[in-house]
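Thanks for the sequence, V.! I ran Bleomycin resistance protein right away. Repeating your input here for the record:
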Amino acid sequence: MTVEKTIPILRIFDFRKAVEFYIDWLGFEIIWEHRFEENFPIYLEIAKGGLTLHLSEHHGDATPGAKVFVWCKDLKAYHQQLIEKNYKYNKPGLEETFYGSWVVEVIDPFHNKISFNEKKE
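Predicted structure:
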C-alpha cells in the first residue's frame, strides 16, 4: 500500500461560521460542496497550500474537538497575515515548541484545532 493523501474530516455546525473562519480568515478556498437537498447538512472540501480538509455538518462523520497537526513553511509570514486580518474570535500566538519548531495554533468555532508548525532552521 502507498498512501497518496490524508484528508481529515472536521465536524462543523454552521456553514456561515465555517466560511468566516476557514475561507475569510485562514485563506482556504472551497473546492466543492454537497447537500442532498435544500435545508440538509453540508459536506465540503477546502484547501490551502497543500492542506486539504473536509468539513461536515453530518453528525456521524466526525466529533467536535479534533486536532490536526500540519508541517508547513513561511509560518511567520502566515501568522502576520492572520493577525493583520484582526479576526474577532481568535488571536493566535507564534510560539517556540520543545520539539524544535514554531507553532501557530488556531481553534475553529466548533472547537477543532489546527496546529501549524514550521521546523526551526
